[in-house]
Specification:
By secondary structure, the chain is of the alpha/beta class. It has helices at about 35-45, 60, 70-75, 90-95, 125-130, 150-165, 185-195, 210-215, 230-245, 255, 260-275, 280-294, and strands at about 50-55, 85, 105, 110, 120-125, 135-140, 170-175, 200-205, 220-225, 250.
């Protein structure tokens, strides 16, 4: 039985020392194969080392949530301004034109709706379909501490094995149940477990205290999920703090597509992530672009 972490010794996350990335720009990816590296380089900018992924997969358990009622109308026009697009295969085939040139991350888990226990997921896509759809990566929910924790972890490891066979990176999404505490201790545990078990990228929520320990103790890149819609300045500040504290970008949904001006918000997030623009300046940019559209 592994001992619980009862050591009185202070932990040292070496938050000021970046993990070495010998020969390849992305954390934890140096020893991957060419195909996987090539896919990751489509998603993460080799220049900034970061990504702005646009997450619109929410319908897989929430149905047509606000902002995603008609993806053809509201989301397809935003695709040229993201680095990668995170969606389901159903939306990709039915709504997204095949001549987009942006890389696609595909949601590969599903099962329960918002009416049921969300951790009761299964793998919901064959790797062959991801290949057929030319996916740059696949994403799956992992419910650490959730009712179906072990199954969700095994779903992820199976997907990692499939991804490794074909050079397709797997992004583990650390889902948080209604009653779970969202703090750095929880996300350190969830992210590190997923990375140790093979995830190539982690997607997790931002926490205002010790987020840098979540990123530094995770040996693969972390992208920040946006969470519930916030006022634009708060969302931009969260994205700014996340990347300054070691996140390799964002995979944001509601804070972009539920904004009054999604294209302006997308542009502001791009500046924060790739150019370290300060949140207030990014808000000014957002307002300028939003007003220019009127
Ligand atoms: C749903 C997801 C979403 O992609 C994720 O939550 C990102 O979207 P948002 O920024 O709206 O939180 O993984 O389970």
């Amino acid at each position: 039985m592994p001992e619980a972490d009862v050591s009185k010794r202070d932990k040292n996350y070496y938050t000021d020392i970046p993990q070495p990335t010998a020969g390849y720009f992305l954390k934890g990816a140096s020893n991957l194969g060419w195909g996987m590296k090539h896919r990751l380089a489509q998603v993460f900018s080799p220049t900034s080392g970061r990504t702005v992924m646009l997450a619109v997969d929410h319908g897989y358990f929430q149905g047509p949530t606000t902002g995603l009622e008609r993806i053809d109308q509201t989301i397809v026009p935003l695709i040229p301004n993201c680095d990668a697009f995170f969606c389901t295969r159903g939306i990709l085939r039915s709504v997204v034109p095949a001549d987009i040139t942006k890389p696609v991350f595909l949601r590969a888990s599903g099962g329960p709706s918002i009416l049921k226990e969300l951790s009761d997921e299964e793998i919901a896509m064959d790797i062959e379909d991801a290949i057929r759809l030319n996916a740059a990566g696949i994403g799956i929910q992992v419910f650490i501490g959730g009712e179906h924790e072990t199954r969700s972890v095994h779903n992820m490891t199976k997907l990692v094995d499939m991804g490794m066979r074909y050079g397709i990176p797997v992004m583990a999404v650390t889902a948080v149940g209604k009653d779970m505490v969202r703090d750095a201790k929880y996300f350190r545990l969830a992210c590190r477990m997923c990375a140790e078990l093979g995830a190539n990228v982690l997607k997790t929520y931002f926490v205002s205290e010790e987020f840098e320990t979540v990123t530094s103790s995770c040996p693969v890149p972390i992208v920040m999920a946006g969470g519930k819609k916030l006022p634009e300045l708060e969302a931009l500040t969260m994205a700014y703090n996340a990347v300054q504290q070691g996140a390799a970008g964002v995979d944001m949904g509601r804070n972009i597509f539920q904004s009054d001006a999604p294209a302006a918000m997308m542009e502001a997030v791009n500046k924060v992530v790739h150019e370290n623009m300060k949140p207030k300046d990014a808000l000014d940019l957002f307002n300028t672009l939003k007003n220019a559209k009127k």
